[in-house]
Amino acid sequence: xxxxxxxxxxxxxxxxxxxxxxxxxxxxxxxxxxxxxxxxxxxxxxxxxxxxxxxxxxxxxxxxxxxxxxxxxxxxxxxxxxxxxxxxxxxxxxxxxxxxxxxxxxxxxxxxxxxxxxxxxxxxxxxxxxxxxxxxxxxxxxxx
Length: 144
Description:
Blueprint: H1 6-15, H2 19-32, H3 37-44, H4 48-61, H5 80-94, H6 104-115, H7 123-130
Helix pairs in contact: 1-2, 2-3, 2-4, 3-4
Protein name: IS630 family transposase
Pfam families: HTH_29, HTH_33
InterPro entries: Homeodomain-like_sf, Transpos_IS630-like, Winged_HTH_dom
């Protein structure tokens, strides 16, 4: 499992796009060269705990142990079907030029009433961007 050499780790590191993965592989290259974990941490400017974790993961799981693990993150406020309905609502209400403009408050109220989701009004901008819409505001025309 730990049959890779210093050169192998360096070669793998240069092939990586992920900076985090490069750091892990460089740490293992230094470990193969006989550096202590404290020396590796100082040289790469990372914590010794991180180096310990990378070395342990490599020794137990091989290169697969160095990969990023999936993270759960916060669940989305709206499901994909709700996002589709919201997108349809926005398209239907913005295609009528004679009608009143659709405001953030209108969209926020729609989300609250239709989906029973209580979100911050600023979330409207986030969801609009995710759905591919852009927010346009008009400037006031002051007379001089």
